[in-house]
Specification:
The chain is α/β, with parallel strands linked by helices and about 260 residues long. The protein has a single domain (about 5-255), classed as 4-Layer Sandwich (Purple Acid Phosphatase, chain A, domain 2), CATH 3.60.21. It has nine helices and 13 strands. The strands form three sheets. The chain has a five-stranded mixed beta sheet with strand order 3-2-1-12-13. The chain has a five-stranded mixed beta sheet with strand order 4-5-9-11-10, with helices on one face. Helix 3 crosses helix 5 and helix 6 packs across helix 8 (about 160-170). It is globular. It starts with a strand and ends with a strand.
Length: about 260
């Protein structure tokens, strides 16, 4: 039995399947955490969503998923709150006969998952907030999306009030300004950030030193271990790698390169 975490899939099903074979994943005994952004931008989004959904039905609580910004974007398009963008690859999902079943399942997934000192979140944890405050933000979003009508929460996610701030921290955050406000514009590598802008994890390493935080989202950052933060988005959809680690050995990554599936 092994406890695995895999970074953002973005519809790269062939690489996902190859990575599971590489790590000799056993769905009957292992656990698997996915950092979110299951879909969008990649070539097999519908197939990936169906695959993970089926795997979740098979594994139950041993498979944990957190929602990423692209997963939330799919839900807003499905609910009619937004329309797909020019570079989105969501059409196959939205047109599928099982779109409602898949999206109703997806909207019940959490924004934050914890097991002991191990934390799974798509983007990160804000260093000005305690872990209990993050739980409250995540639970508020989860309650709104998994309720009878997710549309009010999906609309509020793109606003400036609490649902919008919570979603920005948990699903979109990469950088902070000097006053610790969110900087959602910078998406490049940490070495190329402007003066006064810092990666979120540089301060979170002190605030959450006793945790191990598994994240995705930042493809330009790539895989790396930064104190308690394990960054797992290897940028597979952009020509990089799909990355897996065992939770008890985060410094030993397993990789499948794009096109190697």
């Amino acid at each position: 039995m092994a406890d695995w975490v895999i970074g953002d899939l973005h519809g790269c099903l062939d690489e996902f399947d190859a990575l599971l074979q590489l790590i000799r994943f056993d769905p009957s005994a292992d656990t698997l955490w996915l950092t979110g952004d299951l879909i969008n931008r990649g070539p097999k989004c519908l197939e990936t969503l169906r695959y993970v959904h089926t795997l979740h039905q098979e594994m139950g609580a041993r498979l944990q998923i957190v929602l990423g910004n692209h997963d939330v974007h799919l839900l807003t398009c499905w609910a009619g709150v937004r329309t797909p963008g020019r570079t989105d690859t969501l059409a196959s999902i939205l047109a599928a006969s099982d779109a409602n079943s898949l999206c109703n399942w997806l909207r019940t997934q959490p924004f934050l998952h914890e097991q002991g000192s191990h934390i799974l979140v798509h983007a990160g944890l804000h260093p000005s907030l305690s872990l209990s405050q993050h739980r409250a933000l995540a639970n508020g979003l989860h309650g709104g999306l998994s309720g009878s009508d997710p549309r009010p929460t999906l609309q509020a996610i793109y606003g400036e009030q609490q649902p919008g701030f919570a979603a920005a921290v948990l699903t979109r955050m990469r950088c902070l300004n000097a006053d610790l406000s969110l900087n959602l514009q910078e998406k490049g590598a940490p070495d190329n950030l402007p003066d006064g802008v810092m990666p979120w994890y540089t301060l979170a390493a002190h605030r959450f030193a006793d945790a191990q935080i598994h994240t995705g989202h930042w493809a330009a950052l790539g895989y790396g271990v930064y104190g308690p933060v394990v960054a797992l988005d290897g940028g597979c959809v952009w020509g990089g790698d799909l990355v897996a680690v065992r939770r008890d050995a985060p410094a030993r990554p397993y990789r499948i390169s794009r096109g190697a599936g």
